[in-house]
Design brief:
By secondary structure, this protein is mainly alpha-helical. The chain has a single domain, classed as MFS general substrate transporter like domains (Growth Hormone, Chain: A). 78% of the residues lie in helices and 0% in strands. It contains 19 helices and no strands. The protein is globular and about 65 Å long. It starts with a helix and ends with a helix.
Length: 448
């Protein structure tokens, strides 16, 4: 069965392969969210830690994000060195480890619950890189990545809706709800990973157009980073800000929606998520039609800039009472994810193809992600321990303005750097081609 399914996929048409590969990857990462995000749907009103010095839910979010942060640093080495044969089993081991942590969270005394939420975050932080490794380096990576990235937008809201349903309809208590949600998605996870395992490796045409992808050792990672350090640092700093805002919005969207007057609508998460997903999928999926890797890499910068513009512009329109709260949150989310998703898929995949170096996108994605979650932790700590008396909504609005402006400046500088670098590289390559062709031309003349 394994052999026959792989053979069918190798022989299938491009649309059939895209539908299969995108569905398997989407389902796998969607299931992972059931082990990561449901806990934020509960209120935990009756639980207090550290004598009330910090809200218990904020402490849980911070603990999990710290686990994610550690995971991203570990992933720089683990994901970039992971052989293809071990990806699937590693996904299952990591996700099941996170489920054990959720069971520990439910059973542990209050003072130790944060430890188990931290342990829940550590394994889950490496799942994205493992799943995307199945998709990178293909001619269809953009459309596959766009469809996979929709999980960022819809999965969080949908699994939180499942969590709310378990609490409200099935009478599951708050502390057991996260583990119960994970249990519901365990069998679908195993099926999804099995289907993902059947994907054939990139074919020769993929390799010709998108560059070969191989594991990278420490020396290769260091050499690659320093070769493009100025541009990479600018991109990583912008991603730090965008990730911090994205995580804050995701973790505290319930509080923001409540202040906007939609707190009693459980379906509001799915309402916004589905609309945002459609906008982002149409925008970013179109990248697959661009064959020139240098042009596509630079256009990725343009999409990020457009996302930053929509993020800041929609917020300004909301404050000017041009947009209502629902429309603002949809447009803001569309801008945020249009800026966020390229870093996790297309940007670094196209960069490797553009510079013509044998590497893998996992290294760059986790390098950026490790910085990104530093941004998440910093924003959470500032919000939790600063003396600000701003409401959730006021703080979020100010954060949107700062992130949209600062990120746009950083990305514009990165675009300028890589434009000059790749132009020089292209001009140098043209000179080499001309030099190589001269002896052949002279020989042809003599022969005549």
């Amino acid at each position: 069965m394994v052999f026959s399914l792989k053979t069918l996929l190798q022989r299938s048409s491009t649309p059939i392969f895209v539908i299969y590969a995108a569905s398997a990857a989407f389902m796998t990462y969607f299931c992972m969210y059931a082990f990561r995000k449901p806990f934020v749907a509960a209120s935990y009103d009756n639980i207090e830690i550290f004598s009330g010095a910090i809200d218990f839910k904020i402490a849980l979010v911070l603990a999990q994000v710290l686990g994610y942060l550690l995971s991203k640093f570990i992933g720089i080495k683990v994901i970039s060195e992971m052989p293809a044969s071990k990806r699937a089993i590693t996904i299952l081991v990591l996700v099941m480890s996170s489920e054990l942590a959720l069971i520990g969270f439910a059973l542990a005394p209050t003072d130790y619950k944060l430890v188990f939420m931290f342990l829940n975050g550590v394994p889950l932080g490496m799942i994205w890189g493992l799943v995307f490794s199945f998709l990178e380096g293909r001619r269809t990576t953009e459309i596959l990545g766009a469809m996979l990235s929709i999980t960022f937008i819809v999965a969080s809201g949908l699994v939180r809706s499942v969590g709310k349903w378990l609490i409200n309809e099935m009478n599951i208590v708050d502390i057991w709800m996260p583990a119960a949600t994970g249990a519901l998605f365990t069998i679908p996870l195993f099926i999804s990973v099995y289907l993902l395992m059947q994907l054939p490796k990139p074919n020769q045409q993929d390799i010709t157009e998108r560059q070969a992808r191989k594991p990278m050792n420490a020396r290769q990672r260091k050499s690659f980073f320093f070769a493009y350090a100025p541009g990479l640092i600018l991109l990583i700093l912008s991603f730090l800000l965008i990730t911090g805002l994205r995580d804050f919005r995701d973790n505290f969207s319930a509080e923001i929606w409540t202040e906007l007057g939609y707190g009693n609508e459980p379906s509001i998460f799915a309402y916004a998520g589905i609309r945002i997903a459609l906008i982002v999928l149409l925008a970013l999926g179109a990248m697959v039609i661009i064959k020139n890797n240098v042009r596509a890499f630079l256009i990725n910068h343009v999409f990020i800039l457009l996302g930053c513009g929509l993020l800041g512009g929609s917020t300004l329109a909301f404050q000017a009472h041009i947009l209502d709260g629902k429309t603002w949150m949809v447009l803001l989310g569309a801008g945020l994810y249009t800026a966020y998703i390229p870093y996790n898929c297309f940007l670094f995949d196209r960069m490797i193809s553009a510079v013509g170096v044998t590497a893998n996108a996992g290294f760059l994605i986790y390098l950026a992600d490790s910085a990104g979650y530093l941004g998440s932790v910093s924003i959470l700590l500032y919000r939790s321990f600063s003396s600000t008396e701003q409401s959730w909504l006021e703080f979020f609005i100010n954060l949107c303005y700062f992130v949209s402006a600062a990120s746009a400046c950083l990305v514009a500088c990165s675009m300028g750097y890589f434009s000059r670098l790749l132009y020089k590289k292209h001009q140098y390559s043209k000179k080499i081609i001309k030099l190589d062709s001269k002896p052949q031309e002279e020989g042809a003349v003599k022969a005549v």
